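User: quick one
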Amino acid sequence: MVKTHSAPGGPAGTEEQGARSPSAGRRGDRSAGPSRCRRRRPRATAGSGGMAALLISPTLLVLALVVLYPTIVAFKESFYGKAGLDPETGFLNKTAPFVGGQNYADIFSPAGERFWNAFWNTSFFTVTTVALETVIGVAMALIMHKAFRGRFLVRASILIPWSIPTAISGLLWRWIFNSHGVANEILGQQILWTTEGFHAQVAVIIAEVWKTAPFIGLLVLAGLQVIPREVYEAARIDGANSLRQLWHITLPLVRPALLVAVLFRTLDALRMFDLPYVLIGAHKHSVETLSMLAQDEAANVHFGPASAYAVLLFLYVFLIAMAFVRLLGTDLVGESDAPKRGRRWAVRRRKGLTA
Amino acid sequence: MNARTARALQCSSLLLAVGLAATACGSSGASGSAAQDEPEFTGRGPITYVAGKDSTGVTKKIIDRWNTNHPKEKVTFIQLPTDPDTQRQQMIQNAQTKSDAYTVLSLDVVWTSEFAAHRWIDRLPADEFPLGKMVKPIVETGKYRGGQYAIPASSDGGMLYYRTDLLKKAGIAQPPTTWAQMKKDCAKVKKLPGAKGMSCYAGQFHKYEGLTVNFAEAVHSAGGEILDAHGKPHVDTSKARKGLDFLAASVKDKTIPKEATTYQEEDARRAFQKGELIFARNWPYMYSLVEKSKSETSGKFAVAPLPGLNATGTSSLGGHDLALSSFAKNKATAIDFMKFYTSEANARLALKDGSLAPPYAKLYDDKALVKKYPYLPTLKRSILHAQPRPRVVQYGDATAAIQREAYAAMTGNKSSKQALRDLQKSLRDAVAQ
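Assistant: Done. Structure below.
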């Protein structure tokens, strides 16, 4: 399996803006910038419109070739069934029969049990791992942001898991979760982690959080570093303790960066494949995700069902990405019409300082 | 025509796609069936040899020998992981992309039907290979519908490894031939002061291809079958149930340690080598490794045929056959290399250095070799009476179903009866396609 990055429209475009947005938001608040911009924009782009289209056309062409085309073909493939065996020659037929929506309808038959299991596993892993990663990642970022002796070492050690390829970390954790492994040694029990059951899910969650919490930490750290020191100074003068500062300054101001990180992790977790595959193995009911199911069907030369599962996973990921942008999009774009209470508090404080 | 062009394009670009990468490439085969029926083997130059992990180092030795004699037709060894499921999937992926990266494939004996039916491998000129000198059941594993698609390189039969020192101390003269005897012997050995904390028996019971092998052995050893003579599933029988019951009940009464449900071949070897097991089922490759290991077990073990329900059991037929990828280049070199690799001299080397069972009947009766390897007569018996795992085109579906049901029964999630009934149904679906 080639590890690919799913980028259904939204996230790729918002990343940059999201990371920059804290400062952008402040500037927007201070001046009548947006309206001035709106007036100037048509004139600035009208003349270079054709040039702009020309310049982005190679990108669009590549995207159409590597994203749009395969998506359409996979969609088409999902309407085909399994190739039959020619009883005369003993060879499989070269063309698969057209079966219409049968592959999709099968999901609602008793045979669809495997799909729904994979669907719930995928959702379960996404919710649990992203929730844990967010909490741990923010904590990591706060630690990395603090100035203290040996900060370099702490930063490096936090980032190491993120730099290890997932398959390798899967192998590492398989040794840890071996029946005679470190995990059992520490717990003083013999849990067979790689067998079917809830413990296998726990093993996957632990390894996944270990691996990707630093990613959230890294993005949040970037968000933390653009918060100006004066804001905290003002808060201290006003007598806000550190908990209050965290809640009313740090978190609101780092929120855009955090949301981008969470969105990325969510989309990534929904496609989870390599970690459960390497750590626990194929055909394992308790950890089989949608990607694993689609891959397994494809490996067994059932392209129709495999494509159908992949299309459904694609739609699922797409819907969640859309929902993210819709629900939280105002902040992802950086221009919030109705800032949250905490944020307004911080901004008001800052205004008071500069005025 | 249109469809074919579309598929070709799809193959080259789809791997990069979003979450849909898994569905890469359609199922269409190469065009022109005439080329398939009478393949021409032309072209000389560098080729590749693709096989699982070379844990004994023999493959490398054979390839090195070839490369020194054929500097212009060098063979590159592509090592795949130990896990057979992964090997098969990588080879299938290579075939689906019609890549010429793999030339000669080392196929597990059970994959021949599937690869041949999909036209991923070429039909070979059987009369150019010394198949007459090989053991007949082994040669059969390379056949599909009468055509020879693969040439046996090594065979494999499961054997019962046992600790001679412990059995002797417990006053047991002969290794067990039935499961009941084995359990009784274990009870005696466990009373010895030196055998504290040891487990009785283990095979390969992780949910992977090895479980299919061990399940098939248990069923066949109890007189049951998985497919009948016409290739139709016939596993929901009382005989088959006795076989599965042996595995399930043994886990329950701790004859088989619970952690054996995570064992692959190497895990079982490690456990036996470390002195955790009295009896272990494994392939011949383990013999020389344990012997050379300098552990407390080396020199204190021997092999016997697998035990069964009422008499000696039946092994699954293992081993590897060499096949030629349909999409490869330099096929003339490939055929020559296959002849070289499967020659008697190299089979002897593989046996000497890696204790890989040779396909040549003569080597089993070779007095010098038997003297060096006392287990050869046992192995010959195991192979001659072995039963193949189910040979179906949709082998992936069949083996996944077997693993699922056998695992459920062994971990106590299903009764053996229910597991076999469900298996019968799943196998019927897999074979019907």
